[in-house]
Amino acid sequence: MNGWILAATVVLAGGLGAALWGVATGPLSRRVVAQNLSTAVACPGVLLLAQGYSRTSYVDVALVLALLGPVGTLVFARLLAGELADDRPSAWGLTWAAAALGAVVVLVLCAVTGPGRAMVKLLVIGTLLIGGNLIGSRALSGGFAGVRRG
């Protein structure tokens, strides 16, 4: 076991444990925030595992996860809009913490890989992960001003 795998274990155990607790307990607003958190934590964990095992194909898994995770959150926000209208989730501290985790992992991995196509792919994954997490959280907390609901 190397340091990358240890870091991935800590990230995945801590983040996905918290997400599992949020999904299993509490009101609907906590469960949808936990679903968004699971994507925001699993993607950096998979990136760390890719570096730890020296498997570049795992980076593709992280790319797909960074693409589809926020889409799932937006689908939940749309389908559960009526139920979430009374009790809007507000987890901006958690959202920014997950975004910071993703940014730190991506920047460290960019520094390790050096310039090239792999670095560009990591930067795209980081942008999708952080942007998708922020957009998904904003959609869950009430949407965007000026956007018609319906």
Q: Based on the structure, what is the oligomeric state of the protein chains?
A: single chain
Termini separation: 51 Å
Strand portion, in percent?
under 5%
Structural class: mainly alpha
Radius of gyration: 16 Å
| Helical run tally | 6
> If you average the pLDDT, what whole number results?
88
Helix content: over 70%
| N-to-C order of helices and strands | HHHHHH
Summed up:
The chain is mainly alpha-helical and 150 residues long. The chain has six helices and no strands.
Structure description:
The protein has one domain. It contains six helices and no strands. The chain has helices spanning 3-24, 28-53, 57-79, 81-84, 92-113, 117-140. Helix 2 runs parallel beside helix 5 (92-113).
Compile the SSE list and pairings.
Layout: H1 3-24, H2 28-53, H3 57-79, H4 81-84, H5 92-113, H6 117-140
Which tags fit this structure?
150 residues, mainly alpha, 6 helices, elongated
